[in-house]
Amino acid sequence: MNNNASKQLHQKRCVFVTVGTTLFDSLISVICTPSFIHKLISHGYDKIIIQYGKGSIPPSSPFLHGKTDPTGIGGGQSREGIYKDNLTGKSLSYEIYNFKNSLHDDMKQADLILSHAGAGSIMEGLAHGSRIDNDKVTAATPLIPHKKLVVVINDLLMDNHQTELAEALSKSGYLMMLKSSNRLLEDSIMKEIQEFQPRLYSGGNPDTFGALVNCFLTIDKEE
Question: What is the pLDDT of residues 85-108, one digit of tens each?
């Protein structure tokens, strides 16, 4: 392992999972499996935040053992705690909730965003990936994506417009797209995510946004 990889594994890193206002229990179920949690811990992640939307956390999930806080929107609860991985002896802190008024803070602290294919969540994730939170930077400061957006397709949905948008942005290099939640259980998936180098999305740039829209609108013509 080279020095950069070793240093990366020892940095505190956070994963944020969001399904927006949708029902995407197949994704949440995979995220809550000990197998996937072990993958995260083994690749240096020590915190996970899960926004599960209209769905629910599986009864067998280890994330249901934490302290509850009745602050969830719409009668839901948030819950947080610490999960210890028996295989590595390492721990993963977690927070789960159904909805919040804003996902800004959770996206901001995340190093990796796992999202459904909703257009709003995608654009917010891309915008957060290109930000530099430093008041001293200038317009000449190069922007380099400092977090990765992985979009997971809900294959139970009949409407494929979200899939088309995610596929277009994936082909352009802005995000990584998974066609099924079960791909997160594959042995090679964390390596694939680690090796993925996203193209910079310049948030607030009308030219960049126009290019994204054009990419989406012309994808059918290319195929």
Answer: 988 899 999 999 999 999 999 999
